[in-house]
Amino acid sequence: MSHFTTIKVQIKNGEILHQVLQELGYQVECDTKVRGYQGNTTEAEYVIRQNNGYDLGFRRTEENYELVADFWGAKINQQEFVNAISHNYAHKTLMATVQEQGFDVEEEETLEDGTVRVVVGRWV
Question: How many CA atoms lie within 13 Å of 111's alpha carbon, on the beta-carbon side?
């Protein structure tokens, strides 16, 4: 019996996801198995190993990535984990898009509610 649960996340770019996971301090293994209850495993493109034997993985679906883990054994706060990754992924994606389109970041600040305000511009 599998205890793996999947959570859909709004992440499309695997390279940026990998960078974000590393920047958040996680050791990431690529294209390997996620470990769960009683030695059960499932495949994922990016895997965060945990010492307790219950890993966290991200695997590609048709459009996005999904988080897959046996959360009972992983013993993490799912919401905080997903929020941290989503927040950092959105910021990194925005910065890459700004650069690709020839804009410069003129101002960036984090508001009291955690919202990041970014002002960009470009000479025409």
Answer: 5
Quote the CA–CA distance of 26 and 84 in Å, as a whole number.
Answer: 12
d(CA 36, CA 56): 9
Within 24-99, strands assigned E span 28-35, 41-48, 56-60, 65-69
Going by their DSSP bridges, the two strands 56-60 and 41-48 should be labelled as antiparallel
Helices (H), 51-77: 71-74
Residue 69 burial (CB count, 10 A): 28
Tens digits of residue pLDDT in 62-92:
999 999 999 989 999 999 999 999 999 999 9
Please tell me the pTM assigned to this model: 0.86
